[in-house]
Amino acid sequence: DAGITQSPRHKVTETGTPVTLRCHQTENHRYMYWYRQDPGHGLRLIHYSYGVKDTDKGEVSDGYSVSRSKTEDFLLTLESATSSQTSVYFCAIRGGGNEQFFGPGTRLTVL
Amino acid sequence: DAKTTQPNSMESNEEEPVHLPCNHSTISGTDYIHWYRQLPSQGPEYVIHGLTSNVNNRMASLAIAEDRKSSTLILHRATLRDAAVYYCILRPYYNQGGKLIFGQGTELSVKP
Protein backbone atom coordinates (compact mmCIF):
# COMPACT_ATOMS: atom_id res chain seq x y z
CA ASP A 1 0.00 0.00 0.00
CA ALA A 2 1.67 3.22 -1.18
CA GLY A 3 -0.62 5.46 0.85
CA ILE A 4 -2.44 7.09 -2.07
CA THR A 5 -5.97 8.34 -1.76
CA GLN A 6 -8.15 10.12 -4.28
CA SER A 7 -11.17 12.29 -3.65
CA PRO A 8 -13.92 12.28 -4.54
CA ARG A 9 -14.24 8.67 -5.67
CA HIS A 10 -17.32 9.43 -7.74
CA LYS A 11 -18.65 12.68 -9.12
CA VAL A 12 -21.44 13.71 -11.46
CA THR A 13 -21.36 17.24 -12.76
CA GLU A 14 -22.77 19.34 -15.54
CA THR A 15 -21.09 20.66 -18.65
CA GLY A 16 -19.38 24.00 -18.06
CA THR A 17 -18.83 23.63 -14.32
CA PRO A 18 -15.35 23.58 -12.77
CA VAL A 19 -14.20 20.36 -11.15
CA THR A 20 -11.18 19.65 -8.96
CA LEU A 21 -9.92 16.18 -8.18
CA ARG A 22 -7.50 15.60 -5.35
CA CYS A 23 -4.69 13.09 -4.99
CA HIS A 24 -3.08 12.72 -1.59
CA GLN A 25 0.01 10.69 -0.68
CA THR A 26 1.51 10.01 2.72
CA GLU A 27 5.02 8.91 1.78
CA ASN A 28 6.72 12.07 0.54
CA HIS A 29 7.32 10.91 -3.04
CA ARG A 30 8.63 13.52 -5.41
CA TYR A 31 6.87 12.41 -8.62
CA MET A 32 3.09 12.32 -8.99
CA TYR A 33 0.96 11.67 -12.08
CA TRP A 34 -2.59 12.05 -13.34
CA TYR A 35 -3.94 9.60 -15.92
CA ARG A 36 -7.33 9.11 -17.49
CA GLN A 37 -8.70 5.79 -18.67
CA ASP A 38 -11.32 5.41 -21.36
CA PRO A 39 -12.60 2.34 -23.22
CA GLY A 40 -10.54 1.79 -26.36
CA HIS A 41 -7.78 4.15 -25.26
CA GLY A 42 -6.25 2.56 -22.21
CA LEU A 43 -4.51 4.84 -19.71
CA ARG A 44 -3.21 8.18 -20.95
CA LEU A 45 -1.06 10.65 -19.06
CA ILE A 46 -2.62 14.08 -18.47
CA HIS A 47 -0.03 15.92 -16.35
CA TYR A 48 2.72 15.04 -13.95
CA SER A 49 4.68 16.75 -11.21
CA TYR A 50 8.32 16.38 -10.25
CA GLY A 51 8.19 18.51 -7.12
CA VAL A 52 6.32 21.28 -5.36
CA LYS A 53 5.24 23.83 -7.97
CA ASP A 54 6.98 21.79 -10.73
CA THR A 55 4.61 20.29 -13.26
CA ASP A 56 4.64 19.29 -16.91
CA LYS A 57 2.17 18.21 -19.56
CA GLY A 58 1.38 14.69 -20.64
CA GLU A 59 -0.14 13.47 -23.89
CA VAL A 60 -3.74 14.64 -23.23
CA SER A 61 -3.36 17.86 -21.23
CA ASP A 62 -5.78 20.12 -23.12
CA GLY A 63 -8.66 21.23 -20.89
CA TYR A 64 -6.84 20.31 -17.68
CA SER A 65 -4.64 22.17 -15.25
CA VAL A 66 -2.77 20.94 -12.19
CA SER A 67 -1.28 22.36 -9.06
CA ARG A 68 1.07 21.10 -6.40
CA SER A 69 1.56 23.48 -3.50
CA LYS A 70 2.51 20.72 -1.05
CA THR A 71 4.45 17.49 -1.57
CA GLU A 72 1.53 15.37 -0.47
CA ASP A 73 -1.23 16.85 -2.66
CA PHE A 74 -1.58 16.95 -6.44
CA LEU A 75 -4.75 18.60 -7.73
CA LEU A 76 -6.30 18.15 -11.17
CA THR A 77 -8.72 20.85 -12.30
CA LEU A 78 -11.13 20.86 -15.18
CA GLU A 79 -11.81 24.57 -15.62
CA SER A 80 -15.01 24.01 -17.59
CA ALA A 81 -15.98 20.36 -17.76
CA THR A 82 -17.10 18.85 -21.07
CA SER A 83 -18.76 15.52 -21.81
CA SER A 84 -15.53 14.31 -23.44
CA GLN A 85 -13.91 14.50 -20.02
CA THR A 86 -16.20 11.81 -18.66
CA SER A 87 -13.66 9.20 -17.63
CA VAL A 88 -11.97 7.36 -14.80
CA TYR A 89 -9.06 9.35 -13.42
CA PHE A 90 -6.11 7.70 -11.73
CA CYS A 91 -3.39 9.32 -9.70
CA ALA A 92 0.00 7.66 -9.30
CA ILE A 93 3.26 8.21 -7.48
CA ARG A 94 6.73 7.02 -8.45
CA GLY A 95 8.52 4.75 -6.06
CA GLY A 96 12.22 4.44 -5.38
CA GLY A 97 12.69 1.71 -8.01
CA ASN A 98 10.97 3.80 -10.70
CA GLU A 99 7.81 1.76 -10.45
CA GLN A 100 4.50 3.60 -10.21
CA PHE A 101 1.83 3.02 -7.61
CA PHE A 102 -1.71 3.96 -8.47
CA GLY A 103 -4.61 5.25 -6.46
CA PRO A 104 -8.11 3.73 -6.50
CA GLY A 105 -9.43 6.10 -9.16
CA THR A 106 -12.16 8.74 -9.46
CA ARG A 107 -15.10 8.10 -11.74
CA LEU A 108 -16.23 11.42 -13.24
CA THR A 109 -19.40 11.82 -15.28
CA VAL A 110 -20.07 15.09 -17.09
CA LEU A 111 -23.67 15.46 -18.21
CA ASP B 1 8.94 5.72 -27.93
CA ALA B 2 9.38 2.05 -28.72
CA LYS B 3 6.19 0.07 -29.06
CA THR B 4 5.06 -3.23 -27.55
CA THR B 5 2.76 -5.86 -29.02
CA GLN B 6 0.69 -8.19 -26.86
CA PRO B 7 -2.12 -10.63 -27.58
CA ASN B 8 -5.52 -9.11 -26.86
CA SER B 9 -6.60 -11.96 -24.62
CA MET B 10 -5.47 -15.25 -23.12
CA GLU B 11 -7.09 -17.98 -21.07
CA SER B 12 -5.57 -20.15 -18.40
CA ASN B 13 -6.65 -22.73 -15.86
CA GLU B 14 -6.40 -22.19 -12.17
CA GLU B 15 -3.22 -23.53 -10.54
CA GLU B 16 -1.42 -23.83 -13.89
CA PRO B 17 1.48 -21.64 -15.04
CA VAL B 18 0.74 -18.75 -17.40
CA HIS B 19 3.15 -17.27 -19.91
CA LEU B 20 2.19 -13.82 -21.14
CA PRO B 21 4.23 -12.75 -24.18
CA CYS B 22 5.29 -9.28 -25.25
CA ASN B 23 7.11 -8.30 -28.44
CA HIS B 24 9.20 -5.14 -28.53
CA SER B 25 11.36 -5.44 -31.62
CA THR B 26 12.34 -1.73 -31.64
CA ILE B 27 13.55 -1.68 -28.05
CA SER B 28 16.65 0.41 -27.42
CA GLY B 29 19.52 -0.52 -25.17
CA THR B 30 18.38 1.78 -22.37
CA ASP B 31 14.71 0.77 -22.30
CA TYR B 32 13.49 -0.98 -19.18
CA ILE B 33 10.71 -3.54 -19.59
CA HIS B 34 7.90 -2.97 -17.09
CA TRP B 35 4.81 -5.06 -16.41
CA TYR B 36 1.69 -3.81 -14.71
CA ARG B 37 -1.68 -5.40 -14.26
CA GLN B 38 -5.13 -3.99 -13.66
CA LEU B 39 -7.77 -5.97 -11.83
CA PRO B 40 -11.41 -5.13 -12.56
CA SER B 41 -12.48 -1.76 -11.12
CA GLN B 42 -9.03 -1.04 -9.67
CA GLY B 43 -6.03 1.06 -10.56
CA PRO B 44 -3.03 -0.53 -12.27
CA GLU B 45 -0.65 -2.47 -10.06
CA TYR B 46 3.11 -2.77 -10.56
CA VAL B 47 4.20 -6.36 -11.18
CA ILE B 48 7.86 -6.48 -12.18
CA HIS B 49 10.50 -4.84 -14.33
CA GLY B 50 13.89 -5.66 -15.79
CA LEU B 51 16.57 -4.55 -18.21
CA THR B 52 18.54 -7.53 -19.50
CA SER B 53 18.55 -10.35 -16.98
CA ASN B 54 15.60 -12.47 -15.91
CA VAL B 55 13.93 -11.20 -12.76
CA ASN B 56 11.88 -12.86 -10.05
CA ASN B 57 9.75 -11.44 -7.30
CA ARG B 58 6.93 -12.67 -5.12
CA MET B 59 4.32 -11.97 -7.78
CA ALA B 60 5.91 -13.24 -10.98
CA SER B 61 9.00 -13.88 -13.07
CA LEU B 62 10.16 -11.92 -16.08
CA ALA B 63 12.04 -13.75 -18.80
CA ILE B 64 13.83 -11.48 -21.27
CA ALA B 65 15.07 -12.79 -24.61
CA GLU B 66 18.78 -12.57 -25.23
CA ASP B 67 18.27 -10.01 -28.03
CA ARG B 68 15.73 -8.19 -25.82
CA LYS B 69 13.18 -8.06 -28.62
CA SER B 70 10.67 -10.00 -26.61
CA SER B 71 9.85 -10.84 -23.02
CA THR B 72 7.51 -13.12 -21.14
CA LEU B 73 5.75 -12.57 -17.86
CA ILE B 74 5.37 -15.85 -16.01
CA LEU B 75 2.77 -16.44 -13.34
CA HIS B 76 3.86 -19.70 -11.80
CA ARG B 77 0.49 -20.82 -10.51
CA ALA B 78 -2.52 -18.85 -11.69
CA THR B 79 -5.29 -18.09 -9.24
CA LEU B 80 -8.70 -16.61 -9.91
CA ARG B 81 -7.38 -13.36 -8.46
CA ASP B 82 -4.85 -13.14 -11.31
CA ALA B 83 -7.62 -12.44 -13.83
CA ALA B 84 -6.72 -8.96 -15.03
CA VAL B 85 -5.40 -6.91 -17.93
CA TYR B 86 -1.62 -7.20 -18.12
CA TYR B 87 0.38 -4.36 -19.65
CA CYS B 88 3.90 -4.63 -21.01
CA ILE B 89 5.52 -1.18 -21.13
CA LEU B 90 8.93 0.08 -22.23
CA ARG B 91 10.35 2.86 -20.12
CA PRO B 92 13.47 4.59 -21.42
CA TYR B 93 16.15 5.06 -18.78
CA TYR B 94 16.39 8.71 -19.72
CA ASN B 95 12.62 9.16 -19.82
CA GLN B 96 11.99 12.58 -18.42
CA GLY B 97 9.53 12.33 -15.59
CA GLY B 98 9.38 8.54 -15.59
CA LYS B 99 6.27 8.60 -17.75
CA LEU B 100 4.60 5.33 -18.71
CA ILE B 101 2.82 4.81 -22.01
CA PHE B 102 0.16 2.13 -21.68
CA GLY B 103 -0.99 0.04 -24.62
CA GLN B 104 -4.10 -2.13 -24.75
CA GLY B 105 -2.60 -5.01 -22.79
CA THR B 106 -3.59 -8.68 -22.59
CA GLU B 107 -6.80 -9.59 -20.84
CA LEU B 108 -6.16 -12.78 -18.89
CA SER B 109 -9.05 -14.93 -17.80
CA VAL B 110 -8.55 -17.77 -15.33
CA LYS B 111 -10.90 -20.73 -15.30
CA PRO B 112 -11.51 -22.74 -12.12
What's the structural blueprint in terms of helices and strands?
The complex is a heterodimer of chains A (111) and B (112).
Chain A: E1 4-7, E2 10-13, E3 19-25, E4 32-38, E5 42-51, E6 54-57, E7 64-70, E8 73-78, E9 87-94, E10 100-102, E11 106-110
Parallel strand pairs in A: 2-11
Antiparallel strand pairs in A: 1-3, 3-8, 4-5, 4-9, 5-6, 7-8, 9-10, 9-11
Chain B: E1 9-13, E2 18-23, E3 31-38, E4 45-50, E5 55-56, E6 61-64, E7 70-75, E8 84-92, E9 106-111
Parallel strand pairs in B: 1-9
Antiparallel strand pairs in B: 2-7, 3-4, 3-8, 5-6, 6-7, 8-9
Folded structure, characterized:
The complex is a heterodimer of chains A (111) and B (112). Chain A has 111 residues and is mostly beta strands. Chain A has strands at residues 4-7, 10-13, 19-25, 32-38, 42-51, 54-57, 64-70, 73-78, 87-94, 100-102, 106-110. Chain A has no helices and eleven strands. Chain A is globular, with a radius of gyration of 13 Å. Chain A starts with a strand and ends with a strand. Chain B is globular. The mean pLDDT of chain B is 92. Chain B has 112 residues and is mainly beta. The interface between A and B is medium-sized, with 25 and 21 residues.
Distance between the termini of chain A: 34 Å
Shape by Cα distribution of chain B: globular
Arithmetic mean pLDDT of chain A: 94
Low-confidence runs of at least 5 consecutive residues of chain A: none
The percentage helix of chain A is under 10%
Task: Report how far the terminal alpha carbons of chain B are from each other.
Answer: 38 Å
